[in-house]
């Protein structure tokens, strides 16, 4: 009877987490991310947490601003960012992000006239183990502050499987990139 009650309580808690409207907390979450990376952050469309079929956090309309004094509007925008946890590692008491999936990300990086890079973070970010990062429909704009000095790379699809201790010593990358009207297939190993 006690085991059944405990299982029932777990199911009730899981249901509450699964069906809560997490979007009401998006400003608070954006504020915490902003404090951690020392850049302005907003979440314009929504925030959700799901436990089934896998544990995941989904952020829609993520915008990360540039450092103060930068003329660019946004450093990073992501239409949909999904962070999915590895259930087996979680059951073993470890936190492992199985996959970070980014849909329609746009990253704008530049070097200012005084040669300082705008993509350097002012505070260290806690490294979390990640199994795979995938990008669909991404754009990277890079170059100098002058529009004439900017270049653009599109990632139609890009999947990077990171090296993991005891499994693969090299990361694997696959994807299709576009630059200056040319499409390039990317496939291979990265790492030591």
Task: Provide a short characterization of the protein structure.
With 192 residues, the chain is of the alpha+beta class. It has helices at 2-19, 26-37, 87-91, and strands spanning 41-50, 56-64, 76-85, 97-103, 106-111, 130-144, 150-161, 171-179, 182-190. A hairpin with a 2-residue loop joins strand 8 and strand 9.
Keywords, separated by commas or semicolons:
single chain, about 190 residues, alpha+beta, nine-stranded mixed beta sheet, 9 strands, about 45% strand, globular
Q: Can you offer a commentary on this structure?
A:
With 192 residues, the protein is of the alpha+beta class. The chain has helices at 2-19, 26-37, 87-91; strands at 41-50, 56-64, 76-85, 97-103, 106-111, 130-144, 150-161, 171-179, 182-190. Strands 1, 2, 3, 4, 5, 6, 7, 8 and 9 form a nine-stranded mixed β-sheet that branches. 9% of the residues are buried.
Q: Secondary-structure blueprint of this entry?
A:
Elements: H1 2-19, H2 26-37, E1 41-50, E2 56-64, E3 76-85, H3 87-91, E4 97-103, E5 106-111, E6 130-144, E7 150-161, E8 171-179, E9 182-190
- Sequence stretches where pLDDT stays below 50 over 5 or more residues: none
- Mean pLDDT metric: 81
Characterize the largest beta sheet: strand count, sense, and whether it forms a barrel. 9 strands, mixed
Write down the overall geometry: globular
Helix content: 10-25%
Query: How many DSSP E strands?
Result: 9
**End-to-end distance, in Å?**
54 Å
- Alpha-carbon Rg, integer: 20 Å
Structural class by secondary-structure content: alpha+beta
Order of helices and strands: HHEEEHEEEEEE
Per DSSP, the total helix count is 3
Query: Into which percentage range does the β-strand content fall?
Result: over 45%
């Amino acid at each position: 009877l006690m085991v059944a009650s405990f299982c029932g309580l777990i199911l009730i808690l899981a249901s509450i987490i699964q069906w809560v409207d997490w979007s009401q907390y998006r400003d608070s979450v954006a504020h915490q991310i902003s404090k951690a990376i020392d850049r302005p952050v907003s979440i314009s469309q929504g925030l959700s947490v799901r436990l089934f079929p896998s544990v995941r956090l989904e952020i829609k309309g993520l915008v990360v601003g540039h450092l103060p004094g930068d003329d660019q509007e946004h450093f990073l925008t992501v239409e949909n960012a999904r962070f999915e946890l590895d259930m087996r590692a979680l059951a073993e008491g470890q936190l492992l992000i199985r996959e970070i999936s980014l849909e329609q990300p746009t990253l704008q990086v530049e070097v200012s006239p005084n040669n300082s890079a705008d993509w350097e973070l002012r505070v260290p970010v806690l490294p979390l183990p990640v199994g795979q990062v995938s990008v669909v429909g991404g754009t990277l704009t890079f170059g100098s502050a002058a529009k004439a000095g900017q270049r653009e790379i599109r990632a139609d699809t890009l999947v990077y499987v990171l090296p993991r201790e005891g499994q693969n010593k090299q990361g694997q990358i696959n994807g299709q990139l576009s630059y200056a009207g040319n499409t390039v297939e990317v496939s291979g190993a990265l790492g030591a």
